[in-house]
Each structure stands twice: as structure tokens, then as C-alpha cells.
Amino acid sequence: MTTAEATAATRAAPGPARRVVASLKESAGSIVFGMEDGTVSIFGLVFGVSASAPDSHAVLLAGATGAAAAAVSMMAGTYLDVQSSNDQARVALADERGRLEHDRRDDDAAVVARLMSEGFTKDDADRVLAIVGAHEGARAKLGVEVRFGAVPQAQDDAVVQSAWMFLADLIAASVPVIPFAIFSLTTARTVSLVMTFTLIVLLGVGRAMLGRRRVLPTVVQTLAIAAGAGLAGVLIGRAVGS
Predict the structure, then answer these.
(1) Among residues 153, 168, 164, which one has the least CA distance to residue 36?
(2) pLDDT tens, 73-95?
(3) Which region, left, alpha or beta, applies to residue 212 given φ > 0 means left and ψ of -120 to 50 means alpha?
(4) Which of 150, 153, 145 minimizes the C-alpha distance to 114?
(5) Which of 64, 72, 103, 241 is the most buried (most CB within 10 A)?
(6) Number of helices (H) and strands (E), helices first, in the chain?
């Protein structure tokens, strides 16, 4: 489906469905990160435990517990991170509006100087400032960009972002664990490795698409991170279990 088709489908969907699709698109980066984190961390845990576990049940118990705890931790971390970012943007805008009320001349001079440093002529910078200055919200954002190098974005929904992170992390973290609920220890290791490898490749492709990066190097990088986690888990598992 093309971007235009996806956008059209979103607009055509009923109200609740439209909001879900919109939040999914806005949270795509968090979802991929959550899935990658969940997969890599629990993959290392599972293979570390399986290196010295007596049977699949022990690995299943450790993996399921770790997956649930990691998902809750990521959800809480995402909620606090989004809330903090929203607060910082709100405070920065409020401070900038206060500066505009009390010291607009110096603030305008700083904005013009910044625009000129980006290649604008003095006349062009003055015109841009005059146009933007007619809209207080846009003028305040421009001032924040000059001072901090970032434009405050629209406030993200901390609850929605953290909910997507929880689901993404939990689902991905379950992939290395599920085989140990079905197969014997030896078979489960192989199946878990194959399933995790497949998911990591797909996540690498997803990262490449989101960041418009080259697919192969991104996939290899993602696999290398997972391999490092798995190796660390096995080494620690063997060292502790011996």
C-alpha cells in the first residue's frame, strides 16, 4: 500500500479506528524500538538460562517473568519520557512568550542573527520575522528553536505512546520464550533461535524503512546486537551454572 493509499484509508476509517491508525503511525518508531529491545533482552536471558537449565519449564518461567517485567518497565519509562518531553516543550514555550513580552527587541535581534547565519540576507530575515511575528505561537516556537536548536512539537499522548510500547515489547519478548512452552529443551533452543532470527531481520528492515537507511547494513547491525546479547547470556549462564 502506498503512502497516499494509507492516508486515504485512514481518513475513510470510522472515528475510533482512525484514531487508532493515527496513533499507530505516530508511534511507529517507539514500536520498532520496543520490539527490538524486548527481543534482544529476552533472547539473551532465555539462552543464558537454557545453557544450564534442567528442562524447558525453567527457561519458560524465567523468560515469561522477564518478558512481563521488561514490558512494564519499558511502558513506565516511555510514559515518563514522553511526559518529561511534553513538560520541557511547554516550559520552553512559556519562557519564550515571557521573554517576548518583556524583551522583544533583543529576542528579535537573536532570531535575525540566527537566520542570517543560515544564509538569509538582513532584509529577508527581517521579512521572515515580520511574517512569523504576526502569529504569536509561531513566533514563540521560532524563538525556542533559536535558543535551543529544536522546535517544540505537538504534545504527544503519554498514555498512548506507553501503551504501544508495552504491547510491542511484550509481543516481541514472547517470541524467544514461546518455543519453551511447546518443545523439549533441545528442540526449543533451535526453534527459538530460528524465530528470533526471523523477527530480528524483520525489525532491521523496519528500522531501515523508518530511518531511510540501507537495509542490509541495518539488518546486520540489528543481528549483531542480538547475537551479542545471546552470547553474553550463554557465557553468564554457563559460568553461573557450572
Answers:
(1) 168
(2) 888 988 888 888 778 777 766 76
(3) left
(4) 145
(5) 64
(6) 11, 0
Q: Which of 35, 33, 32, 42 is closest to 69 using CA atoms?
A: 42
pLDDT value for 2: 45
Residue 4 has pLDDT above 90, yes or no: no
C-alpha cell at 103: 524583551
Give the span between the Cα atoms of 100 and 193, in whole angstroms.
58
Contact criterion met (CB below 8 Å) for 165 and 34: yes
* Residue 154: partners with Cβ closer than 8 Å, 6 or more residues away: none
Residues in the chain: 242
User: What pLDDT is stored for residue 192 in this prediction?
Assistant: 92
Q: Which helix H or strand E contains 134, and what residues bound it?
A: none
**C-alpha–C-alpha distance, residues 232 and 226, integer Å:** 10
> Taking a C-beta distance cutoff of 8 angstroms, is the pair 60, 181 a contact?
yes
% of the chain exceeding 90 in pLDDT: 21
> For the CA atoms of 79, 82, 88, 92, what is the dihedral angle to 10 degrees?
-150
Pick the residue with more confidence: 52 or 11? Answer: 52
Distance, C-alpha 102 to centroid of its chain: 38
What SS3 class is residue 58? helix
pLDDT at residue 1, as a whole number: 44
| Spatial distance between the Cα atoms of 23 and 213, rounded to a whole number of angstroms | 23
Amino acid at 39: T
Cα diameter, the chain: 77
